[in-house]
Amino acid sequence: MFPKSFLFSIAISICLVSIAAGLDTPHKASTSERNVNMGQASGLLFVTFPSGSFRGSATIARSNVLLYSCAHVLYENGWADPQDVEFFPGYHGSGQPADPGTSPRGFYYFSTYRGGESLTSFSRDITVAYATGTFGNAVPVFAKNSEGKVSSRATLKRIYGYPAESDFNGKDGGYFMHVTGSFKTPLFKERGDYWGVDEVSTGPGNSGGGVFVKSGGRFALAGVLVSGSRRSAGIRILGKTTDYMSRSALAAQADRSLRRFSDRRAVKLRDGTKKFTIRRVNVSGFTSNIHALHITTKFKTTYRADLDVYLKSPSGRIKYIAKDSGGSRDDLDLTSKALTATFRGIDPNGTWRLYMRDDRKLDRSTYQFFTLEVDA
Fold this sequence. Notes:
The chain has 376 residues and is mainly beta. The protein has helices at residues 15-22, 31-34, 37-41, 119-123, 146-150, 240-255, 340-343, and strands spanning 11-14, 42-49, 52-60, 66-69, 84-89, 127-130, 157-161, 178-179, 188-191, 194-198, 200-202, 210-215, 218-228, 232-237, 258-263, 267-268, 277-283, 292-300, 307-312, 318-323, 332-338, 350-358, 366-375. β9 and β10 form a beta hairpin. Mean pLDDT is 79; it is low at 1-36.
């Protein structure tokens, strides 16, 4: 999803000595490394646009409801609205995660990015999103005197992230978490809050990955990766602007006009039928149109591809959330899945219907519940 002239950053080996010695060996995080706070708080972003799906990186920091990443991961060509965004903390595997992730919110309100490839754009390429629930384990942020820390030769630094498509060698990077060793190479100021670092090898992908500095005996988030090449990385450091964005996101998360409407009438679906079973929730009490809408639902099944499931609004707009997808995996379990792109701007009041069927024989599925989270 990134401009082709970019090589977005994944730092694999560091300093000139290690480049000469180990350039061809990407560092995939070991189990022990991924068990530390940075590995738990770092995660994979999977973003879906009408034109396709893309990967990025993000970090849970400051609060377990806040997520830091670069804005260009979340906006295609400036300000396109992602159809779905999922976050998977601590994920480390060769294939795409099978289970749904957590959907972040608040992109438009908490970013100063407007697209483009200039130094000014890089200095604004950051966003702070929030969750209606929690993302997972958070690391502290280091925003005070961050310039002094990142530019110091005495400060240990480390970078985490996921390759967008290929690893440092141009091979399929899978969905492995990548991490540098600790390094002391100082960052240098390019413009505003956009800083660079040389002698750190980077390759395609990893936009939004966390840049950490060690302070007071522990690592804290000090910035996110926004650009790079095989010999350098571009980093948007944290500071007063991101502190304000974070406080704004926390306030919105606490004061959001969010209501939940649920149906919990479980039913075992007919096996191998073309007829849909319908469950309903009545939404009321809103005086404005939908700003955001998420669904949480669960089906028990031994063959997920048997399921066809879609949501229909009171005005007749529909969105499939499962359609012969998932193969032979068990159960359909969605938590706060974003459906905002389909339903934003319409009146939420009225009867919402969830249509479901098991259209293949032998493996009967059971609907358990669904909940709509409506922000209007």
